[in-house]
């Protein structure tokens, strides 16, 4: 009797790693000559990051430094949605960066379609903000994982509960 195997496709970001990257970014920006006196700040409020700086150029530069620190800590930049610089009080600019937690419904439907189009004998079902994939063959499940990694989804996906 063949048992059925499964795994979950999720999008999770370790917020402790994000906090560590924020602290490293702020430490680097405080020592850089081009940021002296610019009063650039980066703070996290739940799943949103707020970067405030004197101009859009410095905001983009600080964002690049932050993304480099995230990459060194093992957090994918695809898990972030960087907005455009918006004018703020005192002639400064504010940049909002959203952290992706969970798979949006549209992306989950797109993943299910990709899995069905692959022709593998697996079943995919949407369960809230994650996707469950079941199948009898572990080789088919690993092929689904590879197919989802290769797909251009623009979100960071991880695979949990492989049984």
List keywords for this structure.
4 helices; 163 residues; Alpha-Beta Plaits; four-stranded antiparallel sheet; elongated; 27% strand; alpha+beta; five-stranded antiparallel sheet; 2 domains
Shape: elongated
Low-pLDDT sequence parts: none
| Number of strand elements | 9
- Superfamily at the CATH H level of the largest domain? YajQ-like, domain 2
Main β sheet profile: 5 strands, antiparallel
CATH architecture label name of the largest domain = 2-Layer Sandwich
User: DSSP helix count?
Assistant: 4
CATH class of the largest domain: Alpha Beta
* Average of the residue pLDDT scores: 88
- State the share of residues found in helices, binned by percent: 25-40%
* H/E element sequence: EHEEHEEEHEEHE
Share in β-strands: 25-35%
Radius of gyration (Å): 20 Å
Write down the CATH topology of the largest domain.
Alpha-Beta Plaits
Distance between the termini: 16 Å
Q: Which class do the helix and strand fractions yield? A: alpha+beta
The figure for the number of domains is 2
Can I get a quick summary?
The chain is α+β, with helices and mostly antiparallel strands and 163 residues long. Helix content is 37%, strand content 27%.
How would you describe this structure to a colleague?
By secondary structure, the chain is of the alpha+beta class. The protein folds into two domains: 5-11 and 102-160, Alpha-Beta Plaits, CATH 3.30.70; 15-99, Alpha-Beta Plaits, CATH 3.30.70. It has helices at 15-31, 56-72, 105-117, 138-150; strands spanning 5-10, 41-45, 48-53, 80-82, 86-87, 93-99, 122-127, 130-135, 158-160. Helix 1 (15-31) crosses helix 2 (56-72). The radius of gyration is 20 Å and the shape is elongated. It starts with a strand and ends with a strand.
